[in-house]
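re: that complex we talked abt at group meeting.

here r the seqs, copy pasted straight from the sheet so there may be weird spacing, ignore it
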Amino acid sequence: EVQLVESGGGLVQPGGSLRLSCAASGFTFSSYWMHWVRQAPGKGLVWVSRIHSDGSSTTYADSVKGRFTISRDNAKNTLYLQMNSLRAEDTAVYYCTRENWGSGSSFDYWGQGTLVTVSA
Amino acid sequence: DIQMTQSPSSLSASVGDRVTITCRASQSISSYLNWYQQKPGKAPKLLIYAASRLQSGVPSGFSGSGSGTDFILTISSLHPEDFATYYCQQSYSAPRTFGQGTKVEIK
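got the structure back, here u go
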């Protein structure tokens, strides 16, 4: 069974840092592009970042470019999101998700999400 | 970036109603269009990929159509468990943009 389990969320002050993790199981993690998607309270889904299956390529939304870093450890089946210089507008539930090229590059599995709150 | 626009933003319907939600892309995305369902406090769930292909395990009452810039999600007969928010998303290029969502509420 495919599982994605996020952790690392919490309350952080503006300007602070946080590292999110996403532990993957039930599939060959190293074969899939992975993404982070976030959702501010009461708002819609916003794509944040993606990483190639081997970690060789990354892409970011303009709103987080230069502040967030996506990475992965295929030996540990874990995806990461390092978030620096956090702002109030980064407050959201962060989901990790798997891109399935065989299904039109859709996001076929999602984690349960981890809440990041940026507040003084 | 490709902009995705859904309509309506919300709708009220009754159990048994047929519901259609539209999604328009700001440029052609071929059939790289996906639909997700999200219930309060839960992660999104993939319903339809590649515009019209039903994800495994999704009831056949859901269907998708369209190509290019205009797409439709149809729920043939609303069940109580279908009341949720629905999002379209393009997987044609990065950034992988979502529509703003359509909330389907009980009339």
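couple things i noticed - The radius of gyration of chain A is 14 Å. The interface with chain B takes residues 35, 37, 44-47, 50, 59, 61, 95, 99-100, 103-108, 110-113 of chain A (CB under 8 Å).
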